[in-house]
Design a protein that fits this description.
Mean pLDDT: 77
CATH class of the largest domain: Mainly Beta
Order of helices and strands: HEEEEEEEEEEEEEEEEEEEEEEHEEEEEH
GO cellular component, one term: membrane
Shape: flat
Radius of gyration: 26 Å
Largest sheet: 9 strands, mixed
CATH superfamily of the largest domain: Immunoglobulins
Low-confidence stretches: 1-27, 348-375, 380-387
Main location: membrane
Number of helices: 3
Membrane topology: Single-pass type I membrane protein
CATH topology of the largest domain: Immunoglobulin-like
Subcellular location: Membrane
Family: Belongs to the interleukin-1 receptor family.
Number of strands: 27
Amino acid sequence: MCGLFFVLVTFTLGASAFRLQQVKSTENCPHHTVYFKHYYELHGEPVVLKCPSPRYKHLDFSALTPNITWYKNGSKTMISGRDEDPRIWAKGDALWFLPAMLEDSGVYICTRRNPSYCAEVSIHLTVVEKTAAQEIAYLQVLFTFTSGKIVCPELWDFTPNRTSLELKWYKDALPLEADSGKFVILKGSTSLIVNSVLPTDSGYYICKMSFPFEGVMYEITRTIHLKTVEKEKGITPIIVYPTQKTTSAALGSKMTLPCKVFIGLSSHIHTDVEWLANDTTVDVIYKKSRVTEGGRQEIVENGENFIEVPLIFDSVEEVDFYTDFTCLAQNRYGYQVLPTRVKQEAVGLSWYIAMTPITLACIIVGGICIHKCWKRKADKGYTTAKV
């Protein structure tokens, strides 16, 4: 009887946790989306998370002025302005960390509300030690025997006056000389010009920028992994996103996971990009269209061509955590595959607060029953081993 009751209590407890995970993200807002971008940042440096503007079908709410609130997943305490916390604070659609610390890693929820709609977006932040900078480097590609430029990414939140922008550039920890003829550092620009690109120019580049704020001087660092390819030869497609092997998502949430592919100067029409699920096309695995492959976008950035194809989850379900998703990019010169997995977003222990009285009663009675069983065994001379 006690053993059966223990199984019943365990099952009830698990079912309660599972139920709350499903509705957790929709208790206050009808829409919960996982932002495709995962922020990877360095310990001790300023970080800004931006709350993306939601778009639903043909409607665009970006023109509206909603009320935006922020909190960290697992905590219902809203993140307030700078007066309450000088290090982590919210302003408009941005969440500021001055600076970010290792313990700030986690999932942050921004909520947009106005009288007609409410939407939540989960944003993942991982803060790493500076010694791991190369592990989170931005991939960029240049053609050999031509001139090209390396771009120091994601600085505009820290540079309201772009004309005063000054960067320091390094390769293999050595500062680059602006007047060497090989490199040209443009003042007021995030770009580094590389003349006559050679295969030996590949490697890791670092750009640094000083960021003064209210009397404190911070440093912002970006690491770029530069690959060089021959322009004369057709280029094999290079998948530049997603950059991580796993993406976290909560049960029941919406999610868009784009696959972005670099094809250089090649024509868009010569490269195919598609998503596979368990090595099969998505529409075969997901016949009811809960998970679909979105429309193909052909993009031109800095004179280079990219293709982007999103994988769209209308609602993340448990089966997705056990499915192998793969982005496949191919043309006549070759192909590249990038496997990725969706893992369940960590849920805090606050679920027990919402348990029903029946569930709580089961746990209490079950505990009493198990205690009596153990006591009877002890009275009869049985011993229990410590684990």
